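Batch manifest line 342
LIGAND: zinc ion
JOB: complex structure
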Amino acid sequence: MKEFSRYERQFILKGIGREGQRLLDESKVAVIGIGALGSVTANLLARAGIGHLTLMDRDFLEINNLQRQVLYDEKDIAENLPKAVAAQKKLIQANSEITITAEVTDLNSSNIEALLQGYDLIIDGTDNFETRFLINDYCLKNKIPWIYGGAVSTEGMSFVILPGKGPCLRCLFGESPGPENAQTCDQVGILASVAHLVASFQATEAIKILAGKMDAVERKLWKVDLWSRQFQAISVEHLREFPCSGCREQSYPYLERKIASRAVTLCGRNAVQIYQTGPQKIDFEILARKLEGQAAVKFNDYLLNVHLAPYEITVFKNGRAIVRGTEDAGQAKSLYARYIGG
Ligand SMILES: [Zn+2]
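JOB STATUS: finished
ARTIFACT:
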């Protein structure tokens, strides 16, 4: 039996109430990327009583994350946890009455249909347009609302996408800007408070949609520069006249795009991600024994870390790996082949 009294401040809140709370409890939400934005939205939504929350992230924790990613602490870093797992452990302590699932995985065109089936709403906590345009295509095709959010430096932006009822991300931005055009927080830094503000906006709009308060949903593009205190809500109504190919003729190029290479440079991270080659699970104990004497190795239930200065290979259970210390995909692949396996 659920202890609904934990939500009494939402029962008396105009806009949610008991009926709204019941709808939140029946909702299933996926947060993609549990970093600066995702850790705040996941925190707010878990405490607000979203019945089923999935936390999806491809990465592990690093010390520079603690400046802005509120769900994590030094102990999680010492334990070398993937973000999704550390976030799940933390949020179960905040609300044990909802279902919280952790997915340590890289969302891409080959797995999105399987991973995002059956959700009522998707929250963007990613840091790249490649994944956002993939989510956009998936949500357009399946008529699922999703909430874009981005924050870099002292600026942030958010936009609610309601497929069939207004412009989508591709209507708004055209085709995906290449990595060379997009600033990242690895290059220009990020003020934690601006990320938290954008994430709070995303969580608020999510609660409105899930509680059935569609009239209250913000339909403008919301922008902020917190440092210079500039807040803007920009009308996007005119975009309805020029819909993108997804909205116009159900064309979803990002869903159909094949993964071009086994190794992809993670922009601004001085790292390369290597995709798994098969469905087999890696046995970390056997791999650690194999590497004994060659490199410093440590592992836990989720990942294995090989330290080979100046490189570092982090390999996940399914064989996917992040090689740090290089942006050269070929070099990363050869390090992977040499130490992890072909
Ligand atoms: Zn569109």
